[in-house]
Amino acid sequence: MQILYAKKTNNFLQEEIYRLQGEFKKIKTREVWEYPESVRNHPLSIDLDLCTKQGFLGIYDTTITEVGFRNYLNRFLQEPIEDAKLNFHPNEIRNILKKNTYHTYHLLRKYLVPEAETNEKFPLSRINSEDSFWKKRRFLKGFFPIWGVISPLYIVLGLLFDLPLIPLLLLINGILFVTYRNDSLKQWKEIKALSSGASRFRKIFVYLTKERKTTKQMIDQISSLGDSAELLISPLPHLILNLICLWDLWKIKSLENWKKKFGTFWNDLQIEIIKTDSLLPFANFGFLFPEASFANQSSVGNLSAQNLVHPLLPKSSRVFNPLTEMKPGDLMIVTGSNMSGKTTYLRSIAMSLLLAGSGAPVLGSGFEFPEFQIHTLIRSQDSMEDGVSFFYSEVRRLSSIIQNADSSKKIPILFLDEILKGTNSKERFIATREILSVLKEKRTIVFLTTHDLKLAEIPWAKRFHFTELEKEGQMDFDYQIRDGVSGSTNALKILKKEGIPIRNEKE
């Protein structure tokens, strides 16, 4: 077991190094189809590549509980947490990182599961206080302790002294066993789930509690009860024990006593474990990148940053860019040549928002954000099955965003990449202008990238651009944002570079 734990720790440290170095392809992450359908089909997941092999959700996932994993996903996507008790305050991540340099690392090591496969998630059951088993069998609850003692004694004495009625006694016990058999199996299932969780998460239970003696007693007792469940694998001995002494009822009674003694304590620790499990990916992000800083929430709804960068860019490739102050209703139009960094800039802002909204630090400084509702329309998808084109899919998404803005108290923030690209330029300009006017009225902060320089003429827009540089006849990019509208294009250069002839370039 120690060797296995050492190997697991070594693998964890190696993955941490890959995260630091930006070698994300070397990290074993989940396949897209392994995420819940609601997550992999979420607009943010699609537009920001969150669920791809090198997406943020997989790269920084350190969760090991099933519920903790779901909470981590929902937290990052700004979706409601299924149980309010499992939610955590944004300051909790800040507090973990403040305690000391190695606190996060120690927490993660305690959360390692030696027998687990990479990305495997485990259940950690909560105790159900309602006891339906004895509720249906109030008479049996008071009767069986007496009968369960008399019955085996009589059978032993009967075999020694040839007493009568042993077959009748066994028949009565057999009938009783049949009446509670189905419900007792449910109780055994709960015993096995609690025992498995106690054994698997033993180190974490002890690490997170101040009452270590009570915690060890709780785990030892339920683990011992769980060992009894091994007998269910052998049906004949299990049947004989129930015929002799109503064995299942004794174990169910032991479970009831354990719940009365430790139930509230277990549930409180279970909540603490899952909460910590779901926030550790964010805390670990801050631990790996101490240069990241925590954002401040704006009381007037503004969004700005001194500088920021996409969190998945390796250190060697990072180019930090500022974000000018954006107030509710503001529009930023970003123009620029192909591959110059327009879409990456939008994604950098969106990812920083998601990190800040999750309570995690942001790669950048001076990040200020409002209470927001984020929308992205970067990668539209058509549907052959539903007969929906790219254009109509985009229109439906825009309509939904506009309608949601009416009912939301949060500031809507929308990221658009080449809006309405599925229609002609004349109608696109008219439609885009009207859509942006409506979004301004609804106090939506909008970021729009475009190659259509006419769109940059919209009067209330803040205009920025990226461009390419030319060095020794070759295109070069510095990925720095600049004021104003782009004056350069490079589409024809790219075509010629790839061997596609352009015969009438002057036209």
TrEMBL record:
Entries under InterPro entries matching the protein: DNA_mismatch_repair_MutS_C (IPR000432), MutS (IPR045076), P-loop_NTPase (IPR027417)
Record-annotated DNA mismatch repair proteins mutS family domain positions: 329-504
Transmembrane segments: 139-157
Keywords, sorted A to Z: ATP-binding, DNA-binding, Membrane, Nucleotide-binding, Transmembrane, Transmembrane helix
Gene Ontology biological process terms from the UniProt entry: mismatch repair
GO molecular function terms attached to this record: ATP binding; ATP-dependent DNA damage sensor activity; mismatched DNA binding
Annotated GO CC locations: cytosol
Gene3D superfamilies: P-loop containing nucleotide triphosphate hydrolases
Protein name: MutS-like protein
Species, as recorded: Leptospira meyeri
Lineage, opening ranks: Bacteria, Pseudomonadati, Spirochaetota, Spirochaetia, Leptospirales
